[in-house]
Amino acid sequence: MKITEAFAKGSPTLSFEFFPPKTPKQEAQLFEVIGRLKKFNPDFVSVTYGAMGTTRAKTFFWANEIKAKYGIEPVAHLTCVAATRNDIGEQLDELEKMGVKNILALRGDPPEGQAEFISDFKLARELIAFIKDRKPSFCLGCAGFPEGHPRAASLEQDIEFLRQKIDAGAEYVITQLFFDNRYFFDFVERCRKAKINVPVIPGLMPITNLNQIKKFTEVCGATVPGKLLESLEKHPADTAKIGAEQALAQTRELIKAGVPGLHFFVMNQAEPISSILTQVFP
User: Fold this and answer.
1) How far is CA 154 from CA 150, 183, 256, in A?
2) Helix, strand, coil percentages in the chain from 3-state DSSP, rounded to 5
3) Partners of 200 in the beta sheet?
4) Which of 54, 121, 175, 245 could form a disulfide with 203 if both were Cys (CB 3.0 to 4.6 A apart)?
């Protein structure tokens, strides 16, 4: 199934994002997490791709495992980081042989401590165009930034970059995390004004670790609202509870607003997402 087909079902899609585990213990944990979250009947799950392609083999392995063992449609991440055209061509052949039909094509971030990376692809739109030309049958998604990409000079430039990704062949957008739905609604409005009419899926992450979230938001240009940040800093023992309440409120408002889907950054933990979805879909 192509992800675009799921948007035609008439109700919001549900999807999760996992990262490939590094140890046998983490592998066992991820199997458990997928098993617990499968009961919510996700339309698809995505599997991230490590810096410098370090988890490529595991990304593909888990995409294949999820499809074969759980019957859930996988979306494999591909990035520009340390990528040559030959590399990407071989990876596309590999994914095609696995029966994976969906790719989330991203620029990616250079390794920590490096300002840039060496690659045949400098921008996500170049990677998207290459994939679409080489393997037009793949369904491609791309990333969106509700508060603007950190490298964009303005929100207008950010939307122009997104429009170029859509023009290159991306068929839907999954946003980076945000903690104030106003940013998402304003982002969608900017998209529509720019004639970007593909589905825009909000990306949500329940806060379970404040230091971790501070690092993530710094990388992707998101912010933690002042009142939420103050509450988290004053009550560190209640971080998971506060984060779950925040994510639940966001989820309910987004559903009420009629979003085409919900995408949760799971961080390979079942409990936060399971608790939220049990309350949203009792």
Assistant:
1) 9, 14, 30
2) 50, 15, 35
3) 173
4) 175
pLDDT digits (tens, 9 = 90+) for 145-195: 999 998 899 999 999 999 999 999 999 999 999 999 999 999 999 999 999
Query: Tokens 């979805």 identify what position?
Result: 277
Q: Cα 199–225–18 angle (5° rounding)?
A: 50
| DSSP secondary structure, 256-269, as one string | HTT-SEEEEE-TT-
Q: Report the alpha-carbon distance of residue 21 to residue 58 in Å, rounded.
A: 8
Residue for token digits 């199997």? 31
CA distance linking residue 124 with residue 143, whole number of Å: 9
| CA–CA separation, 228 and 238 (whole Å) | 12
Give 211-232 pLDDT, tens digit per residue: 999 988 988 889 999 999 999 9
Considering only CA atoms, give the Rg of the chain. 18
pTM, rounded to two decimals: 0.94
Could you identify the residue written with the tokens 């791709």? 49
Please indicate whether residue 17 is annotated as part of the active site.
Answer: yes
User: Is 116 in a helix, a strand, or coil?
Assistant: coil
Confidence at residue 53, expressed as pLDDT on a 0 to 100 scale: 46
Instruction: Quote the CA–CA distance of 115 and 132 in Å, as a whole number.
Output: 28
CA distances from 116 to 54, 109, 120, 193 (A): 17, 8, 13, 32
For the chain, what's the residue count?
282
* Averaged pLDDT for residues 121-146: 96
Sorted by where each starts, the structural domains of the chain and their CATH numbers stand as: 3-280 (3.20.20.220)
Write down the residue that tokens 């912010």 correspond to: 223
* 280 contacts: CB under 8 Å, gap ≥ 6: 248, 251, 252, 255
